[in-house]
Specification:
about 15% strand, 8 strands, about 290 residues, TIM Barrel, 8-stranded parallel β-barrel, alpha/beta, binds flavin-adenine dinucleotide
C-alpha cells in the first residue's frame, strides 16, 4: 500500500525504522530483529540506506522480506549524492521487482573529501528521477531545527518547498526532543505553502553513547528535562533505557494530543523498544 494512502486515513499511525546490517555476518541477527518489529503490525516500516551504497543489497533484501513474508507496508530509503543515475535506476528496478512502492528520497551526507560522483546535488533531483521511473510514492526528509548545512531556517524551508514541488508526497522529520520545535516548524512550513503530511520522527534514546553521537552530528537541542534524565540514569543502562522509552512515549502522547497524527519511531533494530512504546499507546492508537 502506498504511504500517501495510509496517511489519508483518518487515524493515528505508528511506524518503525530499522537499518540494514553493515556486514553480511550480522545479517541474520538484524533480519530477526526486524521480523520481531514487523510482528507488532506497525502501519509501515522504513529501512535505511547506507549513504555509500555498500549495504544497498541488504536494504532491498530486508525490505523485500518484510513485505513478502510479513505483509508489512515498507518504505525503502535511497540516497543519491554518492551514486550515479544508472545505479539509481537499477535500484528502482529492484524495488519494482519486489513490489516495493514507497521510497524516501534522500541526498545523503556528503562524505569527507567530497562526493565521489557529481550527478546528484540535492534530494529534489532524486525525487524527480524516481517519479519519472515508476508509480512510486515518494517521501523526503525535513529538519525542524534546520538542516546543519543550511544558512538559516527560512532558506531551508524554501528548499524544502522545492523538494515537495518536485513530487514529495509526505515528509519525515529528523529527531527532536522538544515538541515546541516541531509545532513552530509546522506553522512555518504551512505558511510557506507546504501542505503534505508530516510524520514526526521520534528517537527513544536508550544509552549515553547514542546521545553523544546525536548531539555531535546534528547539534539537536536537548531540553534541561532530558539532560537531567541522562545525568541521573546515564551510568545505569537498564534505567536509562526505561527512562528513554518513557520520555519518547510522553513526547508522542503530547504530539497526538496536539493533532500530530503520524509518528515514526527510530527503533534502531530494538524490538523491545518498539514493543514498549506501542504497548504504552495501546488505547491511544485504537
Ligand atoms: P536535501 O533535501 O537535498 O537538503 C540538503 C541541504 O541542501 C539542506 O541544507 C538544504 O537546505 C540544501 N538545499 C536543498 N536544495 C538546495 C538548492 N537547490 N540550492 C542550495 N541548497 C539546497 N542518510 C542516509 O545516508 N541514509 C538514510 O537512510 C537516511 N535516512 C534519513 C531519514 C530521515 C527521516 C532523515 C531526516 C535523514 C536521513 N538521512 C539518511 C540523513 C540525510 O541523508 C542527511 O541529513 C543529508 O545531509 C541531507 O539529506 P536530504 O535528503 O535532507 O537533503
Amino acid at each position: 500500500m502506498k504511504i500517501s494512502d495510509i496517511l489519508k486515513q483518518d487515524k493515528v499511525t505508528l511506524s518503525f525504522e530499522v537499518f540494514p546490517p553493515k556486514t553480511s555476518s550480522s545479517y541474520e541477527s538484524v533480519a530477526r530483529a526486524t521480523q520481531e518489529i514487523a510482528a507488532l503490525h506497525p502501519d509501515f516500516m522504513s529501512v535505511t540506506y547506507g549513504a555509500g551504497g555498500g549495504t544497498s543489497e541488504h536494504t532491498v533484501q530486508i525490505a523485500a522480506d518484510l513485505h513478502a513474508q510479513y505483509g508489512v507496508n515498507v518504505l525503502t530509503h535511497l540516497t543519491c549524492v554518492s551514486s550515479t543515475r544508472q545505479h539509481v535506476s537499477a535500484m528502482l528496478e529492484k524495488f519494482k521487482q519486489h513490489g516495493i512502492e514507497n521510497v524516501l528520497a534522500l541526498r545523503g551526507d556528503i562524505p569527507a573529501g567530497g562526493a565521489p560522483e557529481n550527478e546528484y546535488h540535492y534530494a529534489a533531483e532524486l525525487v524527480r528521477d524516481i517519479k519519472s521511473q515508476g508509480d512510486f510514492c515518494v517521501g523526503g526528509a525535513c529538519y525542524p531545527e534546520g538542516h546543519v548545512e543550511a544558512a538559516n531556517k527560512t532558506e531551508d524551508i524554501l528548499h524544502l518547498k522545492e523538494k515537495v514541488d518536485a513530487g514529495c508526497e509526505f515528509l519525515t522529520t529528523q529527531m527532536f526532543f522538544d515538541n515546541n520545535i516541531l509545532y513552530n516548524f509546522l506553522y512555518r512550513i504551512r505558511e510557506k505553502g507546504i501542505t503534505v503530511p508530516v510524520i514526526a520522527g521520534i528517537m527513544p534514546v536508550t544509552n549515553v553513547k547514542q546521545i553523544k553521537r546525536i548531539t555531535s552530528m546534528s547539534g539537536t537541542y536537548l531540553p534541561e528535562r532530558f539532560k537531567a534524565i541522562v545525568d541521573r540514569f546515564g551510568e545505569n543502562p537498564e534505567a536509562m533505557k526505561q527512562a528513554g522509552v518513557i520520555y519518547a512515549t510522553e513526547q508522542i502522547i503530547d504530539l497526538i494530543a496536539n493533532g500530530v497524527n503520524h509518528i515514526h519511531v527510530y527503533s534502531m533494530n530494538k524490538p523491545e523498544v518498539a514493543a514498549g512504546i506501542q504497548a504504552s499507546l495501546s488505547e491511544i492508537l485504537k
